[in-house]
Amino acid sequence: MADILNRQDVDFLLHDWLKVDGLLAAPLYAETSRETIDALIDLAETIAETKFLNHYKAADANEPQMTAEGGAQILPEIAEGVRAFAEAGFMAAPFAAEHGGLQVPQLVYQAAMAHFYAANVATAAYPMLATANARLIAAFGTPTQVAKFALPALEGRHLGTMCLSEPQAGSSLADVRTRAVADGEDALGARYRLTGSKMWISAGEHDITPNIVHLVLAKVVGPDGRLPVGTKGISLFIVPRLLDDGAGGTTRNDIALAGLNHKMGYRGTTNTLLNFGEGRAEPFGAAGAVGYLVGQEGDGLPQMFQMMNEARIGVGLGAAALGYRGYRLAVRYAQERQQGRTGRDPAAAPVPIIEHADVKRQLLTAKTYAEGALALVLYCAKLVDETLVGDGRDEAEALLGLLTPIAKTWPSEYGLLANDIAIQVHGGYGYTRDFDVEQLYRDNRLNPIHEGTTGIQGLDLLGRKVLRDRGGAFALLRARIAATIAAAREADGLGDAAAALEALDASLGEAVETLLGTADSAAAMWNATPFLWAMGHVVVAWLWLDQAVAAGRADVDSAFAAGKHAAARFFLEVEGPRVAPWLALVVRGSDTAAALGAASF
């Protein structure tokens, strides 16, 4: 097997730390067993290596191209990989049995997905978006819409997208200008005609499947001919590339590929500018792209948040997987590359560079980032399961909402740093195209921007998830941290780490208490990003200590357990002290940046 992820670590996270067996007792997951889980992870490893990793560099070198017919042509191996993914049942794996799914826990599914992201994140983006698209339609669509637009995706017969951003609006969805005009009704529901442009649409055009189902945010034109103002006027529409022509065939919807965006990473994923209702085609003799309303007018953004939140966790998982693979490649290189000596004898044989203290420091730093990021996202995946089964659903939902911006951002920032370290460990070879670590870095650099920038996630965390909630979910988090601290005090060699985490937790709690008592909530938001950095570090420190406690209790080899213990102690010793200056900015309400006039930059 290729060194994509550490299987021992994946098994430890699933079984020894997160106790996936506890989920299997619920009727929802009664058909899943330990044997099923192991077989699914085995299959993910195999397909990731043989059908995703096999074209990792080729897809980077051969970007999608526009065809003369206005489509997008991609590397054939990408389509082969996506088809293999679907044929193995991974598209359907997390869906309910009533939809033809395998009904496996999200925790297991995301652990399997990590292998595909690590092997080839650009190819994995196609099924990730399609499954999230189908899940949204299954949740909010009519039975007819589900049958027509969601179920085929589970079989890999079509793929899907999310169309939110526009050239002039970016992440400011209140400013979208795509227009929808009512156009009657048919068997698929209320029909509308859409006109407008959508930018940065991943998988928006390709030749993997004949049909692509777009989920499009647009505003319904009012009786006065105007669009509603703000986000409450946004509606959601299913806009397929192909429409039934009423005679047993299909006709092309009025969706045009206006251009391809060429990014520094994820080069195998088409990234598109799409024009809806451009007039190149007028299906059924009328202007505008045909779209079907999901739910009610004005419900679009709340509905889309399901897919957006799923995509945020998916981005975090992808970032963690990319950082993880870079770390593993760096470890292997450091074990094989012989250079320098540890003693003073110039005649002594060179040693593997992993014997040098500074290389060990770099690798241990990368380990805390990469493995910590994966643990964070899988912890959130288990929370998704806990919102569906068991007695603590409300608590799980509150914690998941609180941690989602962290699960998106922390792996994006620190998985990228793990990739940076991997390049450094490789030395001059690290930034050549002969080694994968430079491409892993480029791929991962997109993730701090994907699905909302770090700054947007900081505003969400502090503004919505902490201040607006009046610290309710935050108190639940602190209770779990306290339980880990108590367990660590009873474990061998973790007393100092427990005390360090207790101090970090206390400082974060004091900062939140101060912010909740401030009269100027707008000023508190000036430093929302440093707050995100601080809280992210405290959360990952907690998860590292929790893993160390679990490793001490688990039936794992001594070297593996020692690695978990060392990583927990190292993170608290080296990364923990970074929290204080971040929180100082927050508590002080520093306006050094916020008050500076634009002309002074």
TrEMBL record:
<feature type="domain" description="Acyl-CoA oxidase/dehydrogenase middle">
    <location>
        <begin position="162"/>
        <end position="272"/>
    </location>
</feature>
<dbReference type="InterPro" id="IPR025878">
    <property type="entry name" value="Acyl-CoA_dh-like_C_dom"/>
</dbReference>
<dbReference type="Pfam" id="PF02771">
    <property type="entry name" value="Acyl-CoA_dh_N"/>
</dbReference>
<dbReference type="Pfam" id="PF12806">
    <property type="entry name" value="Acyl-CoA_dh_C"/>
</dbReference>
<dbReference type="InterPro" id="IPR037069">
    <property type="entry name" value="AcylCoA_DH/ox_N_sf"/>
</dbReference>
<feature type="domain" description="Acyl-CoA dehydrogenase/oxidase C-terminal">
    <location>
        <begin position="298"/>
        <end position="459"/>
    </location>
</feature>
<dbReference type="InterPro" id="IPR036250">
    <property type="entry name" value="AcylCo_DH-like_C"/>
</dbReference>
<feature type="domain" description="Acyl-CoA dehydrogenase/oxidase N-terminal">
    <location>
        <begin position="39"/>
        <end position="155"/>
    </location>
</feature>
<protein>
    <submittedName>
        <fullName>Acyl-CoA dehydrogenase</fullName>
    </submittedName>
</protein>
<keyword id="KW-0285">Flavoprotein</keyword>
<dbReference type="InterPro" id="IPR009075">
    <property type="entry name" value="AcylCo_DH/oxidase_C"/>
</dbReference>
<feature type="domain" description="Acetyl-CoA dehydrogenase-like C-terminal">
    <location>
        <begin position="479"/>
        <end position="596"/>
    </location>
</feature>
<comment type="similarity">
    <text>Belongs to the acyl-CoA dehydrogenase family.</text>
</comment>
<dbReference type="GO" id="GO:0016627">
    <property type="term" value="F:oxidoreductase activity, acting on the CH-CH group of donors"/>
</dbReference>
<keyword id="KW-0560">Oxidoreductase</keyword>
<dbReference type="InterPro" id="IPR046373">
    <property type="entry name" value="Acyl-CoA_Oxase/DH_mid-dom_sf"/>
</dbReference>
<dbReference type="InterPro" id="IPR052166">
    <property type="entry name" value="Diverse_Acyl-CoA_DH"/>
</dbReference>
<dbReference type="GO" id="GO:0050660">
    <property type="term" value="F:flavin adenine dinucleotide binding"/>
</dbReference>
<dbReference type="InterPro" id="IPR006091">
    <property type="entry name" value="Acyl-CoA_Oxase/DH_mid-dom"/>
</dbReference>
<keyword id="KW-0274">FAD</keyword>
<dbReference type="InterPro" id="IPR009100">
    <property type="entry name" value="AcylCoA_DH/oxidase_NM_dom_sf"/>
</dbReference>
<dbReference type="Pfam" id="PF00441">
    <property type="entry name" value="Acyl-CoA_dh_1"/>
</dbReference>
<dbReference type="InterPro" id="IPR013786">
    <property type="entry name" value="AcylCoA_DH/ox_N"/>
</dbReference>
<dbReference type="Pfam" id="PF02770">
    <property type="entry name" value="Acyl-CoA_dh_M"/>
</dbReference>
